[in-house]
Amino acid sequence: MFDKIVEEKIQEAIRKGEFDNLPKRGKINLDDWARLPEDIRIGYTLLKNAGYVPEEVQLLKEIEELRKQLAGSNTQDEKAVISKKLTETELKYNLTMELRNRRR
Question: Is the Cβ–Cβ distance between 93 and 63 less than 8 Å?
């Protein structure tokens, strides 16, 4: 029950843009990278060098782009379409992260 309330509050804050200007947003903490097992680091490095990124990273990039588009949109129809796509992408991101957390 508590988890659901917390998640709703987080989603509300995301919709309001309260996390948009956090310091170090989108930056990689190299200390975290160094703590990963070597075989995982190698795999991530291979994927990165081949131009692939984890799904959650791609979704975060899409969310950022959609937020920029929404801020720059001029008509209500355009805003509605972008807003719907943004909500869908945020939901997909949250489901992806929830699935990842459950596998741990």
Answer: yes
Question: Which H or E run includes 47?
Answer: helix 38-49
Residue 20 lies in a domain: no
Give residue 82's domain range.
25-103
* Mean pLDDT calculated for residue range 52-81: 90
- Residue at 38 is within a domain: yes
* Count of structural domains, the chain: 1
Determine the Cα–Cα distance for residues 72 and 2; give it in Å rounded to an integer.
36
Given a cut of 90, is residue 25 above it in pLDDT? no
Residue 2, domain member (yes or no): no
* Residue type present at position 8: E
Determine the pLDDT at residue 62: 92
CA–CA dist 104, 97 (Å, integer): 11
Q: How far is CA 78 from the centre of its chain?
A: 22
**What average pLDDT does the segment 66-74 reach?**
93
Which among 91, 99, 43 has a CA at the least distance from the CA of 66? Answer: 91
